[in-house]
Amino acid sequence: SATCLLPFELLLNDPLQFFRVEVSLEDINDHSPVFPEERISFEIPETSDPGSRFPLEVARDLDVGSNSIQTYHITPENEYFSVSYGSRSNGDKYIELVLEKPLDREEQAEMDFSVIAEDGGSPPRSGSTQVHILILDVNDNSPVFTQERYTAQIFENMPEGSVVLSVLASDQDAGVNGDISYQFSQAIDQTNSVFEIDPRSGEIKLTKPLDFEAADTHELSVRARDGGGLSAICKVLVKVVDVNDNAPELVVSSFSSPLPENSVPGTVVALFSVRDRDSGANGKISCALEDQLFFSLRPAYKNYYELVTVSALDREETAQYILIVTAADAGSPPLTATQTFTVDISDVNDNAPVFNQTSYTMYVRENNVPSVLVGAVSAADADVGLNAKLTYSLSPVQPAEKPSCSCISVNSENGHVFVLRPLDYEHMRRTEVIVSASDSGSPPLRANVTVHLVVVDENDNAPVVLYPAQDSSPASSELVPMSAEAGYLITKVVAVDADSGQNSWLSYHLLRASDPGLFAVGAQSGEVRLRRPVTDRDSVKQKLIVLVRDNGQPPLSATAALSALLLKDFSDVRQPLSSPATEDEGGSLTTYLIISLVFVSLLFLISTVAFVARKVCKKRKELKAGHVLYGADNLQSGLADAAAAGTLPHAHCYEISLTTGSGNSEFKFLKPILPSLPPQHSAMGGATEDEQVFPCVPVTTEDVTPNNAGTLSAEQFN
Predict the structure, then answer these.
(1) pLDDT tens-digit profile of 21-57?
(2) CA angle, corner 589, sides to 583 and 593, nearest 5?
(3) Residue 263 CA to chain centroid, in angstroms?
(4) Nearest-CA neighbor of 282 among 336, 354, 235?
């Protein structure tokens, strides 16, 4: 090539810049001229006129400019021939031997010399070919072609054996001197392997398919030689016509993947070039992108295109784009080529964590074990990698807010929420903390959520009796008139429970009482009422124990002790309140009294048996004597008999009183309500006025069993 340019592209990344560079190669004289044939033979008739010209094949020099062939000369010098060379009007170069003087076969039948081709390099290079001249007799007409230059066009897809064209030469000689044969006189590149010529007809045919992209023209030299040795040369130019047999090609120069999702619109993703080895419309290429919603193609330089972004990207919506670029030529039919760009979108920390609930409510039972798991918070981050790795922590409380509970901890990896120490429902029923979820991006993003911790009540508090007071101070007694009817409200037990819910629902029950049938307790109200009217037989002092029980599982309870005085007249209440020490002393005295009564009863039984035995003996004597004597020893029996006979109008009656809450039990003997025995009784036998006898009734141990309070009731004493 006369001019040799080496084009290339220079790409600079970050930011992407494009430069086109062309390097022009300067020739040096590194090739010598070369003739197509090393030896050329001419048969020239001796009758040839001076000035006759005999064409030679020009030498070729791959160098250009001044390094190409500049001169031709003959060596050794020859007086018969000279060299003539130059360029024709069409630009073709030629070289010819010029006959300078007539030949004489008889003087010299043959001659040999060299034609030297020399270039203009420094130092110059040269090439030579041997010329052999054979001088003939007669044949004085050379072949003549119909055209000096033949031109043909052929499609590159023509099959082997196709005729390109035919050359034709004529010779005015007759006979053998007029027989012409054709042959290629010069081999250029692959000419011999692509074309062949019929030596008789001059038809030039293809030996293999042509390729326009390899060579678009072929220049051939055809020599026509007659039988007498004269020849002529013509040029044949074969132009290859392009067909659309090459699809476009895409060459990627730069491609950036993955692409950050925060890339601004207009960011260059790829730079590529397109080319088509065909020519004309067959080599005209257009490019198209299938999906142009987020990306588009932008022409850069000549056949270069840029693949750029046109809108904001979001990896959370689309993490990967598959872009198909199609290049099509303008041939008929058009040929296409595709290039697939797989663009991965790299994550940027542009999404904060999101909790799966707007707030959390967790429950823990009071008196929990330390570090108990009460629940978990969970958040998700639409990012990936470190940008999605979450860390949970307790968010610090603002100074204006109340301090959060230090008893709550959260696991930084899985969000599990723990209560570090036991809680008391009665001191703290609920609390709340702020849990923060932070990703590991740079800078990190975070989200907060409120966690409400509700303490669930346990039945860990027993009821507390507020009234009547159960402290060490002396308890007051409730006064109940003897005339009270059933349903009379004596008092009300008031109790509270520090628990809540059903654990604080209280119920009241009568646990113990001096007379259980006399009292009733309201299960819900705690009111103590009379179950029946009070009778004279009821003890003056009544003691009750009321059980207060909650509704927890298991239930807890407390007791309330209270006392009631059954009085006819409230003005009789003049006795001091008993103290716990006095009650203990009274209980001890009652025990001693019971023991004494038992002992007395035994003595009384023994005495009674002895008295009855003695009485029986006396009665027998009196029956024998005919009268009855009443004395101190037999008054009981006599009174019984008199009462049975109706001699005593009234029975003896004694009033016995017990002091309420007194330090000791004492008997108060009052004078007999009935008058003493009439004088006749005394006259009948016996007893004087000073000898009045009070009847005694036997008392057994069953009659004097103390009640639950440790004292004897009035009925038991009677």
Answers:
(1) 889 888 888 899 999 888 999 888 878 889 889 898 8
(2) 140
(3) 25
(4) 336
Closest CA to 111 of 130, 142, 133, 91: 133
- For 542, residues 6+ apart whose C-beta sits below 8 A from its C-beta are 480, 513, 514, 515, 518, 519, 563, 564, 565, 566
Could you report the per-residue pLDDT of 145-204, keeping only the tens digit for each? 999 899 999 998 899 889 999 999 998 877 787 889 999 876 444 445 788 999 999 999
Half-sphere exposure for 260 (CA within 13 Å, toward CB): 8
Full strand arrangement of the beta sheet holding 391-394: 359-365, 446-456, 430-438, 391-394
pLDDT tens-digit map of 113-154: 999 999 998 899 999 999 999 887 666 678 999 998 999 999
SS (H, E, C) 150-177: EEEEEECCCCCCCEEEECCEECCCCHHH
* Cβ atoms of residues 152 and 206 within 8 Å: no
Place of tokens 């026509």: 224
Q: State both tokens at 123.
A: 């130092």
Torsion angle, alpha carbons of 380, 382, 383, 387, to 10: -20
Number of neighbours of residue 637 by Cβ within 10 angstroms? 18
Which pLDDT band, with edges at 50, 70 and 90, does 658 fall under? very low
Pairwise CA distance, residues 223 & 200, whole Å: 12
User: SS3 for 428?
Assistant: coil
Residue 434 CA, chain-centre distance (Å), reads 21
CB burial of 351-390 (b: ≥16 within 10 Å; e: otherwise) equals: bbbebeeeebebebbbebeeeeebbebebebbbeeebbeb
Domains by residue range for the chain, with CATH: 39-136 (2.60.40.60), 144-241 (2.60.40.60), 249-346 (2.60.40.60), 354-456 (2.60.40.60), 464-562 (2.60.40.60)
Residue with tokens 């130059």: 86
Sign of the Cα torsion 516, 518, 520, 521 reads negative
Q: Exposed/middle/buried for 152, CB within 10 Å: 0-12, 13-18, 19+? A: middle
Residues listed for the chain: 718
Token couple for 525: 């109200």
